Amino acid sequence: MKLQRGVGGAVVFKRNPSMVIFSRKVFRLLAVALCVPALAFAQPSSAPIKMALIEGLSGPFANTGEAIFRNLIWAVERVNARGGVKLAATEGGNRPLALERYDSKGQNEEALSALKAAIDDGAQFVMQGNSSATAAALMDAINKHNEREPGKRVLFLNYSAVDPILTNEKCSFWHFRFDAHADMRMRALMAVLKDDKALKSVYIIGQDYSFGQAVAREAMRQLAQRRPDVQIVGNELHPVGRVKDFLPYATKIKASGAQAVITGNWGNDLTLLVKAAKEVGFEGKFYTFYGNALGAPAAMGEAGIGKVLAVADWLPNVQNAQSEAFYRSFRQRFPNPADDYVHMRMQLMIEALVQAMQKAGTTESIAVARQLERVTVTFMGQSGAMRASDHQFQQPLVVGVMDKQGTPGVKFDVEGSGYGFRVIKTISAAAAEQPTTCKMQRPL
Fold first, then answer.
1. Residue 301's Cα: distance from chain center in Å?
2. Using alpha carbons only, what angle is made at residue 68 by residues 325 and 343, rounded to the nearest 5 degrees?
3. Is the N end or the C end of the chain the one with fewer CB atoms within 10 Å?
4. Per-residue pLDDT for the chain (444 aa), expressed as one digit of tens each?
């Protein structure tokens, strides 16, 4: 990667085929958007701290990969706008963050090749999340690399791979998860479902890999515990990213008599599923992990009002001034309605990493990890803390239900669809927390 000075003093980090530009114009924009005095910005001039985004940027889930990149680059721009990461003078003083993109094409083998390329390029922090199977493969590879090459250790920051095993049996000192895992998310959904006394039957459907399997297991366990009167009338898994026509699945769901669907599907696998459900006239509810974004609300339209529920760490219609300012600033940065995919946890992740580096005074992996595993971070009214025992971030969760923009509690819609999500349940970090079986092995 080459560092160059562009027009107007812009700092450009280049690596074919992607490049990241941090300009004074962007700095001023973010200053206004986040209400930070522009005169306070100090331009970092030392060598950049290299971070690698390894994600599917082509293939069936390319839209999710690009959406992640927008969130992370926005966070990086904000850090650089305020002067970068403040390290000890011996570590270069103020240093900017540099985010590089590596396309895994949605394949584990490609992700592992990308990891090697990123490390060879000098990346010190690796970020990934769209696929728990890929996260598990990267964790194994990073564990082995860090043991083999202690002088080039890297940390793995996970923003959305939520198979619980990643912070339980497979937990690693080098891995930090900033999303609530599947069991935590399911507990939040069940806090709403348990009170739906009219619900008597559900259909569980998901993607056939570790995450989808974990969602199905936990759905069955929690239903048996909290709503034993609810009948499970279907439980099936489908190939990930390969189903182009979900009509056969939707037809089975409707024929089963299910009053609700529970699914952890994400990306096009969710959008196509809800489109098919609408086409066959399914009138039940959808209890989802990701139904609040990437085309799902527009796919359901009027049929989704009051029927599509989603759990998240944050939603745009969380009603406080800081939350609203945060969301408006993202939309100012990315005004295209199709780019309306913003996650607070990814902002907290970058802020937590910066805080850990600054407290450590260095980018050395073990020193940063020891700070990161006990970090508490607050940004725009949202707070969370890393649990040192398993490196699972603890934060509040919310459940929203789809409704028409302009109705009470729905100031903002999703992706220009005219539909947004009204928050109907807030779960504290303590209530969402779950025990861990992690036996963390820490370096000496």
1. 24
2. 35
3. C
4. 444 433 333 333 444 343 343 334 444 444 444 544 443 344 445 899 999 999 999 998 899 999 999 999 999 999 999 999 999 999 999 999 999 999 999 999 999 999 999 999 999 999 999 999 999 999 999 999 999 999 999 999 999 999 999 999 999 999 999 999 999 999 999 999 999 999 999 999 999 999 999 999 999 999 999 999 999 999 999 999 999 999 999 999 999 999 999 999 998 899 999 999 999 999 999 999 999 988 889 988 998 999 999 999 999 999 999 999 999 999 999 999 999 999 999 999 999 999 999 999 999 999 999 999 999 999 999 999 999 999 999 999 999 999 999 999 999 999 999 999 999 999 999 999 999 999 999 997
Same topology between domain 2-180+321-394 and domain 183-312+396-432: yes
Tokens 């690796």 label which residue?
Answer: 126
Are the C-beta atoms of 132 and 209 separated by less than 8 Å? yes
Q: Does domain 2-180+321-394 have CATH number 3.40.50.2300?
A: yes
For the structural domain made of 183-312+396-432, what CATH number should be given?
3.40.50.2300
The span from the first CA to the last CA of the chain, in angstroms, equals 33
Distance CA 237, CA 209 (A): 8
What is the maximum span of the chain, computed from C-alpha positions, in angstroms? Answer: 67
The domains of the chain are located at 2-180+321-394, 183-312+396-432
